[in-house]
UniProtKB/TrEMBL annotation:
CDD domains: AAT_like. It is found in: Cytoplasm. Pathway: Photosynthesis; C4 acid pathway. Its cofactor is pyridoxal 5'-phosphate. Homodimer. This is Alanine aminotransferase 1. GO terms for cellular component: cytoplasm.
Length: 466
């Protein structure tokens, strides 16, 4: 017998699933290979990936200033060459010099302090303070190599701070789901939190933290923050705020406000509530998923707990330095008067305005489909439409031994090449069916998504109509 088999492996590993790279995506990759080896074998010529928040894989361009600084830091020997000034902006060169002076050995391939390079943490703290209007301490900043901490689901009360949502399924941590209210634009209702809290306590589970995504994933909504803060204060919960989509707000009358800022504005100090805020270089307008850069700002913990957090950071030695640099640049971009400011602003505004248009186009398209409703996309990178499937389609899904939403997404892929994620991969109210669609395909691809989806959906509903 083999030393490791499905009979001997930890069952929690078998249970672990990640919907955005699950069955539908595996099938999509097989279809993509088929298109390469057998052109014309399908009624479409390319796969349109709408399954994961991976902007640059779908054609989004990197921000020039960020990449200039990274390039100079990775190859510092070119800083003093005369031709460098003709290839790189003056402020990128100066920023690279400043950063390199803070790195051990001036080498991005070195280890850093376990918590992250002090000068880069200084830059991030200054950026947080400018954003929120409240003090931020660089000693509260911990770099790590995650892309985002809380994973693919809005609805969680958990007792973990680090390493991600999917860790839950193969650890000793208990998950206590809560549901957002779709009828109120995916509102977070305190009554629902109280209900799930009481149910958990009755089962002997003691919730330790409330996880929220602000703005939301997969639903794209804005979280009502004051209610969440009050609930955590009352119940003594740590508030874990995934705020990696803070730049992705598409409603003009609404702005991003961090949970720490809200708590401080409500009069709660560090002794009143513990808040951990997560930021990442993978989302926003930068979309640097592969750089694996991010940080958490840890507030409201006593020195003994901070010591334990630092110990965990030390076990992993440190995050990669390129990711640390990029995170500092995200929170300290070019300012008015810098040589790169105008080009940087044009790139940033161009990406965000395009994302806003794409969100609106897809939202409108979904709401025109028979049996589909889609709440307004206020932020993040996703839409989460609700689809009311005919009973005949639900029975066909049962016969195929799959969920109705997975059945729909599988049929959609095979007919159109569009990749959506079934809502069952995120957790949804029993008896409802959804799918998640990113707004990330480049703008010139969106009409193809809309036309292919519209044609397929009409055919699907006619096929399974009672």
């Amino acid at each position: 017998m083999a030393p490791v088999s499905l009979d001997t492996i930890n069952p929690k590993v078998l249970k672990c699933e990640y919907a955005v790279r699950g069955e539908i995506v595996t099938l999509a990759q097989a279809v993509q290979e088929e298109l390469k080896s057998k052109p014309g074998s399908r009624p479409f010529d390319e796969i349109l990936y709408c399954n994961i928040g991976n902007p640059q894989s779908l054609g989004q361009q990197a921000i020039t200033f960020f990449r200039e600084v990274l390039a100079l830091c990775d190859h510092p020997s070119i800083l003093d060459k005369s031709e460098t000034r003709g290839l790189f902006s003056a402020d990128a060169i100066e920023r690279a010099r400043q950063i390199l002076d803070q790195i051990p050995g001036r080498a991005t391939g070195a280890y850093s302090h376990s918590q992250g390079i002090k000068g880069l943490r200084d830059a991030i703290a200054a950026g947080i303070e400018a954003r929120d209007g409240f003090p931020a301490d660089p000693n509260d900043i911990f770099f790590d190599r995650w892309c985002k901490p809380s994973g693919p689901h809005d609805d969680a009360v958990t007792d973990t701070i680090r390493e991600g949502w999917n860790t839950l399924s193969h650890s000793s941590v208990s998950l206590v789901p809560y549901y957002l209210d779709e009828a109120t634009g995916w509102g977070l209702e305190v009554s629902e939190l109280k209900k799930q809290w009481a149910d958990a306590k009755s089962k002997g589970i003691t919730p330790r933290a409330l996880v929220v995504i602000n703005p939301g994933n997969p639903t794209g909504q804005r979280i009502i923050r004051k209610r969440s803060v009050d609930f955590c204060k009352k119940e003594g919960l740590v508030l874990l705020a995934d705020e990696v989509y803070q730049e992705n707000v598409y409603v003009p009358e609404k702005k991003f406000h961090s949970f720490k800022k809200v708590a401080r504005s409500m009069g709660y100090g560090e002794k009143d509530i513990s808040v951990v805020s997560f930021q990442s270089v993978s989302k926003g307008y930068y979309g640097e998923c592969g750089k694996r850069g991010g940080y958490m700002e840890v507030t409201g913990f006593g020195p003994e707990i901070r010591e334990q957090i630092y110990k965990l950071a030390s076990v992993n030695l440190c995050s990669n330095i390129s990711g640390q640099i990029l995170a500092s640049l995200v929170m300290s971009p070019p300012k008015v008067g810098d040589e790169s400011y105008e080009s940087y602003s044009a790139e940033k505004d161009g990406i965000l305005s395009s994302l806003k248009r794409r969100a609106k186009t897809l939202e409108d398209a979904f709401n025109k489909l028979d049996g589909v409703t889609c709440n307004k996309a206020e932020g993040a990178m996703y839409l989460f439409p609700c689809i009311r499937l005919p009973e005949k389609a639900i029975k066909a899904a049962e016969a195929a031994k799959t969920t109705p939403d997975n059945f729909y997404c599988r049929r959609l892929l095979n007919a159109t090449g569009i990749v959506f994620v079934p809502g069952s991969g995120f957790g949804q109210v029993l008896g409802t069916w959804h799918f998640r669609c990113t707004i990330l395909p480049q703008e010139d691809k969106i009409p193809a998504v809309v036309s292919r989806l519209t044609e397929f959906h009409k055919s699907f509903m006619e096929e399974f109509r009672e």
